[in-house]
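Readers of this paper often ask what the protein records in our data store actually look like. Such a record has a labelled line for the sequence and another for the backbone structure tokens. Nothing more is needed to write down the fold, since each code stands for a local backbone conformation. The record that follows is passed on verbatim for readers who wish to inspect the format.
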Amino acid sequence: MEILIKRQALLSALAGAKSAHPNEFLCLLIGREEDGNIFIEDTLIPPGIRVFEHSSYYSEWMQPLISGVVGTFHSHPNGEKTPSKADKELFWKKGGINMIAAYPYSLDDVAAYLGGRKMAELKITD
């Protein structure tokens, strides 16, 4: 399985992470699964997002009724792009693609995980 993300979608998520720093940032990944691969085309900041230094969250009751949510993206202001224990628990429950961007939030500071179980290769497309 490959995870492909449009450059503009990733840059948008990274801009959100930079803007929220030193707090975490969170957004939803919008895309589709096709032929065993996941294509991420856009991001969406959910309504009612709450960001703090060591966490970020939103109420699923506030999530817009849209199709195509394939996972989440969040930032780690501490510079670590590995999932925390809380991240792993959440990823295990939610499944899908989970991306973490570490400070200073460049294209090289992003890691993707499949349902919290294993790191996945991330390919950036134009």
